[in-house]
Amino acid sequence: MDAAAVVAGDVRLGYTVSGHGEPVVLIHAGALADWFRPLLEQPILTNRYQLIVYHRANYGTSEHGCARFSVPEQAEQCRQLLSHLRITRAHLVGHSAGAAIALQLAHDAPRLVQSLTVMDPALSPGAATRAGAPPLLRTLIEQHAAGDTAGAVDGFMRSVCGERWQSVVVRMLPPDALSQALTDADGLFRQEIPALLAWRFSEEQARRVICPTLVVAGAESPPVFAQRQHLLLEWLPRADAFTLPGAGHLLHLEQPERFAAALASFLARHRMPVMQGSRRA
Asked: What phi-psi label fits residue 96: left (phi over 0), alpha (psi between -120 and 50 degrees) or beta?
């Protein structure tokens, strides 16, 4: 696995590249930069694909303390990373907020995206009102601003990922994952949540996402994610559904083998006609 960094626009992004084959870009969710670590241990993926994992701005090994980037700006940063790697076509896999970025990139640069997988996507339909943050999120943002970062992160993760989130993270991710979540809390509360609240993805925009799309929901995720799955199945021209048994919003941490098998099957059905992309050392 090669670790490197690239300047994408005005921000330095850390990334790793592993494996060989058609390029698959993994765009992580909020709170934890290494969400996708379990998938890098699944031979059904690592033996068949070139896996590109990067840390978004204000997370992990990427630049901290930089500007607050919108969802479209973060999609453009991903596009610049692929340009740096000389990849002209790739499969995108996004989780939660990462799924929003993947959807935006598939809309903005359709020729770049061979297939799209969105996992429990964060989604704010175009018809939604702009009434500001819901009460819970507003409380958590204020809690973080007041200095209770640990309480704010725990409150957010419990609301989305369930009461057992810490035990799953400790079991499946590197030992420093929980402390990294606190270090990266500005990325969640000052960038992530405001960017998602401001982002709108409408039916009209979805109709322009022409690549095959796998819309994934955790069987035990909060009901809103099943609702979003159904909405995207109606909106996207070429969408298939997959509900991951025995998993909530933590998805590939709770069921890495099952998810990897489903993803590999989807990718195999939508291979590139001619091998695209290469890894630059």
From this structure: left
Q: Return contacts of 257-264, CB within 8 angstroms, 24+ apart.
A: 257/42, 259/39, 259/216, 260/39, 260/42, 260/44, 260/45, 261/44, 262/214, 262/216, 263/39, 263/45, 263/93, 263/117, 263/214, 264/44, 264/45, 264/48
Going from the C-alpha of 75 to that of each of 11, 36, 80, 85, 260, the distances in angstroms are: 13, 18, 9, 16, 24
Q: How big is the chain by its Cα radius of gyration, in Å?
A: 17
Helix, strand, or coil (residue 196): helix
- What letter represents residue 20's amino acid? H
Model confidence band, residue 149 (pLDDT cutoffs 50, 70, 90): very high
At 10, is the pLDDT very low, low, confident or very high (cuts 50, 70, 90)? confident
The whole-angstrom separation of Cα 24 and Cα 11 is 22
Contacts of residue 33, Cβ cutoff 8 Å, sequence gap at least 6: 55, 56, 59, 60, 61, 62, 180, 184
One-letter identity of residue 272: M
Look up residue 41 and give its two tokens.
Answer: 């241990």
